[in-house]
Amino acid sequence: MASTTNSVLKRHAPPGNLSDLTEANKEKWSKDFISTWMQGEIDADPNVVGRGRTPLKQFFDGVKTPFNQGDTPKAVEWNAFPKVLKIRNSYQSDAVRWAIADSSRVVQDEYLEWSVSRGPRKYTGDIYSVTFTAEGPEYWQFLASCQKDDFLKLVKELNSGFASEMSDSEFFLRDYVTGNEVYNPANYWNLLSTTGAITHLIQPNNTLSAEVDIAAQATVIRKNDNGKIITDADELIKCSKYGNPGRNSDPSIGASINFLARGGASLSVAEPVALYIRAFEIGSFKFDMNGTTDGAATDLRDIENPEKVFQWQRGDIKNKAGLRIKIEVPEGLLDNNKKQLLVSNIYDTNKGLHIKYGAQFADYFTMGVSAVGIESKTAPPEACYKPSDLVAGSVKAPCAEFDGFVLPGFAGPPGSSRA
């Protein structure tokens, strides 16, 4: 039976309850990141949110406000393939949208990003591996800053096929003002969609702080100029100025949170605070033992031991909290021609095509976040947030900015450390 007693959290856990951080750094992560963001949203602190915001009446931080930790969180889910690419009428085929989605991490904007390895034929060859991550950049920046040796060891373990090519210095820059070494989130091994190596999200909108901001600001009930309550997902985003309209993710998160707030709940992001892979459907995938050529005769076989091909590396997918998955065929599995099976030997029976793009898998991922709540008074609706032209919608710290959103300790604009 679920508990009915309200209590505060001891602390905010690391994403996915990961064990990378020391006990002391787990405390710092909770206090200096998650609680700083949440309390900044609640207090309308201009160092965290845009100037001119109002304090929040229906958002709380679970380390300060008691809530029933036994309640089942409310999940918000969306498809991982970038909606903006899928709906454009100019794309005449799936292959075109898949190719565009594979071309750059910048277009992978649904809180899931990936990088594809094609072996010697880096851009046109069959796929050797593709790795997907939903891990936020702030967590990895914190790990790199506070536990450098652990960071380097973990990056190389997760990207073991490329570890021998990695140089420790490639992950860091030198701060111009202080001379201190700082982590470069857009380092070579985490910047591109074509290396096969990846550590964390890098698309400017894909941050943990953005998740908290959307959830927090979506608790504000809005009215239009005629006094009518706004309920449309994209209109809420435009009115409250959180997230980006037109995506699968942000409108879904905002609309779901706002619905609960209108129903009289005070809300927060469920523990542990992170973006998660909630599901990955692999039922349509089989091996083509004849090869990787579309249109040729196939010899389709079930993928035995799929967990060895679809390798969950971080998080807990059994509890709908996956963070990272690598797709790669183990060495020694051969096709009918005695050649090593590759990812491109995987055949999607739904589409009748071999895997030629990492983005083909993105169609089958479900992403999500969850919310927890307590009973509350519904606050009066507010007019749309309209910052003046002279006031930025978010605070930019000089010499330490990333996508215009203040991230505690997050230093340096994107830029590759490797030519």
Q: What is the average of the pLDDT values? A: 91
Count of beta strands: 16
Query: How many domain modules?
Result: 1
**Residues in β-strands, percent:** 15-25%
Structural class by helix and strand composition = alpha+beta
Q: Largest sheet, if any?
A: 4 strands, antiparallel
Distance between the termini: 57 Å
Count of runs of 4 or more consecutive helical residues: 10
**Poorly predicted segments:** 389-419
> Helical percent range?
10-25%
Shape: globular
Whole-number radius of gyration? 22 Å
Region (Disordered): 1-22
Which key terms come to mind for this protein?
419 residues, alpha+beta, four-stranded antiparallel beta sheet, 10 helices, 23% helix, 17% strand
Topology readout:
Elements: E1 6-7, H1 23-43, E2 67-68, E3 74-79, H2 83-86, H3 94-103, E4 113-117, E5 129-133, H4 137-146, H5 148-158, E6 172-174, E7 181-183, H6 208-217, H7 233-240, H8 249-262, E8 265-269, E9 276-280, E10 285-288, E11 300-301, H9 306-309, E12 310-316, E13 321-328, E14 346-348, E15 353-354, H10 359-362, E16 365-375
Antiparallel strand pairs: 1-2, 3-16, 4-5, 5-13, 6-7, 8-16, 9-16, 10-11, 10-14, 12-13, 14-15
Helix pairs in contact: 1-6, 4-5, 6-8, 7-8
Region (Disordered): 1-22
Please tell me about this protein's structure.
This protein has helices at 23-43, 83-86, 94-103, 137-146, 148-158, 208-217, 233-240, 249-262, 306-309, 359-362, and strands at residues 6-7, 67-68, 74-79, 113-117, 129-133, 172-174, 181-183, 265-269, 276-280, 285-288, 300-301, 310-316, 321-328, 346-348, 353-354, 365-375. The chain has 419 residues and is α+β, with helices and mostly antiparallel strands. The strands form five sheets. Strands 3, 8, 9 and 16 form a four-stranded antiparallel beta sheet that branches. A four-stranded antiparallel beta sheet has the order 4-5-13-12. Strands 11-10-14-15 form a four-stranded antiparallel beta sheet, with no helix packed on it. Strand 14 (346-348) and strand 15 form a beta hairpin. The radius of gyration is 22 Å and the shape is globular. Mean pLDDT is 91; it is low at 389-419.
